[in-house]
Amino acid sequence: MSTFATDSNLKEYEAQIDEYGITDFSAMHTKTYNDILRLLRIEWWPRVSKSSPNTRYFNTADIEMDPSKLTNSQFVRAAVFHTLGYYIFAQLTQHGPDEDRFSVLEQYYKSRFREEFDLVLQDGIEYDFDGDGTVIDSEKQSVHYNRLVR
C-alpha cells in the first residue's frame, strides 16, 4: 500500500516517537494516506475535474481521481501531521476531562495538518493529467483555479 510519509518522516518532527510504546506505525500511515485521498476527492477533485484546462484528458474511464498521478512528495508534511494528530497522539491521550500532554499534542498536530493541507490546496496539487510521468505547470491546479477569491 502506498503512503505519503514514513517512520523517519515522523521522527523529524517527534524524535522520541519510539519511546511511547507504539512499535509499528505502518497501519497509521496507510490510514492517513486514505484519509488524505478522501479529502482530495471531496475538496479538490470535483472543482479541478470540471474547470481545469486539462479536461481534454478526461474520458468516461477517468472520472475518478487516480492516486498514482499525484506527486506524493507534496503531502509528506501534511501526512506526518495527520498521523501524529489523528492516530498516534489520539491513541496515547487519556481522553479525560483534564488535558494531558498527549491531548495538547493531538490538537496541535490536527491544527497543523489542516493548515498544511490548505496550503497545499492553495499552492496547487501536482497531478499528471496526461500520464506522461512529468507534471507541467498547467497540470498544477489549486482549489481556487479559475475562480475569483475575495
Structure, explained:
This protein is an all-alpha fold and 150 residues long. The protein has one domain. The chain is 48% helix and 3% strand. The protein has helices at residues 7-13, 26-43, 45-51, 76-92, 101-123; strands at 125-126, 140-141. A two-stranded antiparallel sheet has the order 1-2. Helix 2 (26-43) packs across helix 4 and helix 4 runs antiparallel to helix 5 (101-123). It is elongated and about 50 Å long. The N and C termini lie far apart (40 Å). The model has no long low-confidence stretch (mean pLDDT 85).
Q: What are the segments in which pLDDT stays under 50 over at least 5 consecutive residues?
A: none
How far apart the termini lie comes to 40 Å
Q: How much is the average pLDDT?
A: 85
Question: Strand portion, in percent?
Answer: under 5%
Largest sheet: 2 strands, antiparallel
Shape: elongated
Count the beta strands.
2
- Strand order in the largest sheet: 1-2
Please tell me the total number of domains.
1
Helical content (DSSP H or I, runs of 4+) = 40-55%
| Radius of gyration over C-alpha positions, nearest whole angstrom | 17 Å
Structural class, from secondary structure content? mainly alpha
Order of helices and strands: HHHHHEE
- What is the helix tally? 5
